[in-house]
Amino acid sequence: MNQSVGISSLAVSFPSVKRTNDYFRVKYPEQVAQAEQKTLAKVFSADESTVNSRDFDRAMQPYLSDPFRGTVTRYVLGENESSLTLEVQSAKRAINAGKFASEDIDLMLVASMFPEQLIGGNSSSLLNQLDLACPAWNINSMHSGALVGLQTAYAMVKSGEYHNVLVVVSCTYSRNLGQENDTLSWIASDGSGAFVVSSIKADQGIIGTKIINTAVTNDMYSCSLAEDRYKNPQVRLLASNNMGRLMRDHSTKFICQACKDAIADANLTIDQIDFFVTSTPLAWFAELFINTLGIDRRQTLDMHPYYGNIGAALPVANLFYAAKLGKIKPGDLVLVFSIGGASTAAATIMRWGDVALGTAPDIDLPDLSEERIPARKPVLSR
């Protein structure tokens, strides 16, 4: 089948509680003063730089004197908020933006990082709250859940089996990464994104994808079970002693491999890409991405200072704001990249179409109104 398939509507949501660095300075002055002896600084330091970690370490260097490692603002779950409430909000915004009726959605894929129910995930509860009658199931690929969901939805629509697939992702690091006085949680945030994948106009939509495994980073973290305040079981994500080393040694390789292969799959060259959207789990990741691919920094945007690390929701949110802030327009070739530890890294290339954007959350945003520029023919050399 030759129909074009891509994103027809796109939306994001954030929880209600905003926390800046001053919150931690006031509430945890001793932890801030001793930050270099704490988890975050131990995970992300430039000790024993190697050939593999050199580029990562160079991008990280300006942030090593900051106890918050470059994170400025986070949005975290408030009273009566959860991964499910965030997903409901972003899903409704995507459905409404695309002017879909409930019966128009014939499949939903949900990537919750982390779900409210350990067994069964969020998909059935989300179906009920959205009043959808379609089937739904959960998927999981850590930070790459959105792009794995996008590729799966694309294949489902392309085959003709389904027509409009709703993909919903979320991350609730503030709840699942430990106590807020653990410095590693200072870079983390919560958020959700949703999009509908449909048949769209000719010469728009997805034209190339590459998903690679990141199994070499399996030792980045471990999980334990804890209880929330209602005595319900809850997953707690724990950083391993190897987390920093594994990210430093392999991030550049994952960027190169996934992006290079996606560009080849699309039968393009990198100088033909108009704009690049990357996950920004760390304050320096956009800089690493720019330097690794050799692109002009005006061909991407760095949203990490505005909402921190929102895990699987990052590529959706960054794509949303690239469109909302006028960085991409219909007809542009856009590459979207995500990197997930102990799971997958993914790159997808699409020709941006008439994507309906949901109502924007009320968060502080930068002024990115400078004139767009053409690509400067970068070279993917690694």
Commentary on this structure:
With 382 residues, the chain is of the alpha/beta class. Helix content is 29%, strand content 24%. The chain has helices spanning 21-27, 29-33, 39-43, 54-60, 83-97, 123-130, 145-158, 173-176, 243-265, 285-293, 304-307, 314-324, and strands at 4-13, 17-20, 73-76, 107-113, 136-138, 164-172, 190-200, 205-213, 221-227, 233-239, 275-278, 333-339, 344-351, 356-357. The protein has a 6-stranded mixed β-sheet, with helices on both faces. α4 (54-60) crosses α10 and α5 (83-97) crosses α6. It starts with a strand and ends in a 25-residue tail after the last strand.
Q: Give the terminus-to-terminus CA distance.
A: 35 Å
The parts where pLDDT drops under 50 for at least 5 residues are: 369-382
Average the pLDDT over all residues and give the rounded result: 93
Helix/strand class: alpha/beta
Number of DSSP E strands: 14
* Helix fraction by DSSP (H/I, runs of at least 4): 25-40%
Fraction in beta strands = 15-25%
Shape: globular
Count of alpha and pi helical runs = 12
Radius of gyration: 20 Å
* Sheet having the most strands: 6 strands, mixed
Largest sheet, order of strands side by side? 5-4-6-7-1-14
SSE series: EEHHHHEHEHEHEHEEEEHEHHHEEE
